[in-house]
Amino acid sequence: MHTSMANWFCLRSELLVALVSHVWDQKSGMQREPFEVCGACGLSPKSAKPLLRCTRCKSVFYHDKKCQRAHYRIHRKVCRDPSPTSPVRRRLDVVYIEGKGQAVRAGEFIAKAQEIAVFEPLVPPVLIRQRRQTHCALCFDIVSLSEAIVVSTNPKYPTIVCSHGCKIPKTSTRSLPEDCVPSWLTDEVNAVARVLQSFYAPNSPVEILPTAILIFRIELLGIKTIDEMQSHEASLSKEGSIHYQAISGLVQQLFLMSYPSKLPSPERITLIHNAIKYNSFSIVSSVGEALGIGLYQHPAYRINHSCVPNTRQTFTRTTLHLYANRDIASGEEICISYCDADNAIERRQFLKDEYCFNCRCQLCSGLK
Predict the structure, then answer these.
(1) Can you spell out the DSSP letters for 128-188?
(2) Dihedral over Cα of 205, 337, 301, 57: its sign
(3) Residue 343 CB coordination number (10 Å)
(4) Which of 90-104, 250-264, 352-366 has the lowest mean pLDDT?
């Protein structure tokens, strides 16, 4: 009886929070971020400090451990650890659409703000230069120098990792050592340091380094999924071609300095480069700061663009979460936005230049 009453009061409070949130949204005209309320008290963050996520199911947020403990008796009944071998939380179907190619559709109804899927990176993503002295190179967690293991002090390629032992996704570390600093990372850092001392290219090596290192990791760790990804081999502009040649030269130098027997062919480097160009995700923090780039599990790389997307992505360290922006009907295509430009003409031109397609979404269908 007590359990039934507790569940009823919990349900009533959740419905009340949802109703108040809906009315507030309608009156203010603002869009709320998904799950931006505490699961225990239903309130938004009390300060600039973000809410904490349940480390097991990663789908409920709390102000602090006190709120989490208060909600545990109810939450434990639905809290589940998502299996790394089955990252999709809701059924997604990969289909072929005429004129678009491969696409992802919802296999069931998905309500607004619900989490659709959780994706882990295929290989450890690469931090951008500006974050390498403040974030772990493997899990992207913020770490102070006093608590970190310093792998490299090279000013062009500083590298630190979590001193307590970095927890990188199981799906991307099956063939990697379990120690805090994997041997391949040490080899990579040493190779980069040597290459940067002598490498010459039309583009600055520092700026092209993240893409080159991601190619290096994908080939070194033998990721075969890359062969299934979208690739436009003959679509590089003159400027893009110069940029690619600089990246290709850097990748070859990295292998020659570390694993010469595994040096990939130019064709293979081109294939991986194009797969990254058209299928990678820019990883951002909870406050929108750019952290790095990564490639994610199937079917994340099958999701197409729309200027009015029905989903949005967020990141917990390097884990990608996909949420519904609105109610999504069963059979409806799942879309994200590839571009943040507000001007429709500029946005369409960017998509054509960078992703090699003319957008025909609902917003662009009336434009010439």
Answers:
(1) -GGGTTTB-TTT--B--GGGEEEEE--TTS-EEEETT-----GGG-TTS--SSS-HHHHHH
(2) positive
(3) 9
(4) 352-366
Between CA 244 and CA 208 the distance in angstroms is: 9
- Give 140-169 pLDDT, tens digit per residue: 999 888 888 889 888 878 999 986 666 544
**In this structure, what is the dihedral angle of CA atoms 14, 16, 18, 23, given to the nearest 10 degrees?**
-170
Strands 61-62 and 311-316: unpaired
Coil, helix or strand for 318? coil
Q: What is the mean pLDDT of residues 299-319?
A: 92
Q: How far apart are the first and last CA of the chain?
A: 64
Lowest pLDDT segment from 23-32, 94-103, 177-186: 23-32
Alpha carbon distances (Å) from 340 to 60, 304, 306, 335, 336: 28, 15, 11, 14, 11
SS3 label, residue 201: coil
- Which is nearest to 173 in space by CA: 184, 163, 160? 184
The answer to whether 330 and 319 have CB atoms below 8 angstroms apart is no
**Poorest-pLDDT segment among 2-6, 219-223, 296-300:** 2-6
Residue 337 CB burial class (10 angstroms; 0-12, 13-18, ≥19): middle
- Taking alpha carbons only, the member of 163, 218, 213 closest to residue 190 is 213
- Whether the bond into 299 is cis, omega within 30 of 0: yes
- The pLDDT tens digits of the residues spanning 251-294 come to 999 999 999 999 999 999 999 999 998 999 999 998 889 999 99
Asked whether 255 and 268 are in contact (CB, 8 A), the reply is no
Q: Which helix (H) or strand (E) holds 282?
A: strand 281-284
- The whole-number pLDDT of residue 17 equals 38
Nearest to 145 by CA among 134, 132, 154, 137: 134
Q: What is the pTM of this model?
A: 0.70
Strands (E) across 24-107 are located at 52-53, 61-62, 92-97, 101-106
